[in-house]
Amino acid sequence: MNVLITGASRGIGFEAAKALCGMGHTVLAVSRDLEGLRRLELDVQSADHRAQLHALPFSITDEDLEKELLPRVRHLAPELHVLVNNAGALLNKPFADITAGELELVYKVNVFAPFRLAQAVLPLMGGRAGAHIVNIGSMGGVQGSAKFPGLSAYSSSKAALANLSELLAEELKDRKIAVNCLALGAAQTEMLKEAFPGYEAPLTAEEMGSFVAWFAANGQRYFNGKILPVALSTP
Questions:
Q1: For position 14, which CATH number holds?
Q2: For residue range 58-75, what is the model confidence (pLDDT) as tens digits?
Q3: Helix, strand or coil for residue 144?
Q4: More confident residue, 188 or 16
Q5: Which of 4, 31, 200, 209 is paired with 66 by a 20 to 30 Å CA distance?
Q6: Is pLDDT at 48 greater than 80 in this prediction?
Q7: pTM for this predicted structure
Q8: What's the total number of domains in the chain?
Q9: End-to-end Cα distance, the chain
């Protein structure tokens, strides 16, 4: 399979990209962090020199996504089987203090970019059985789950992404593209440390990344239009 994954320079995306390469898939790893992508390349090469990893330095919020990123993707993978919208922006700040710019950035990364990227790759994915779009959401974006102060921008954006996943599954089913959303619980990532210093998550980034990789490659066989909680807590 040819798999495009965003936010691949660290955390869950980094580990998922490694795991997908280990499964024998060709991975197009997107991130604005060039150094992180270089670390990913070295890790993959040290594990398996035959693995097919293509690092694509790019900011998914760039307005020229269709003109700049898509031609590079098409050149490397004329047929794209899986898109993993993993890149995310996490803001932990009291609601009253969040600026318009901060809110806009969170939504640009967590909602607008996945929307636009899915649109952009449709010509590379449509009509092929087994095509899969995986949106990486959050338990905080699931209705009825526990909510936490400071996450109004982040969790509401993930709720929008979850709803978008359901809508796209319906709209794209004639193109044979399955769309699912993984509502992740806490995993020990750099992003989590930055937002919640001192908090210890029950799962490592590697453990969560391995699950995301498996689901990206296989989840469409079992699910479509689903928001699936991936957490050790209830609700």
A1: 3.40.50.720
A2: 999 999 999 999 999 999
A3: coil
A4: 16
A5: 209
A6: no
A7: 0.95
A8: 1
A9: 34
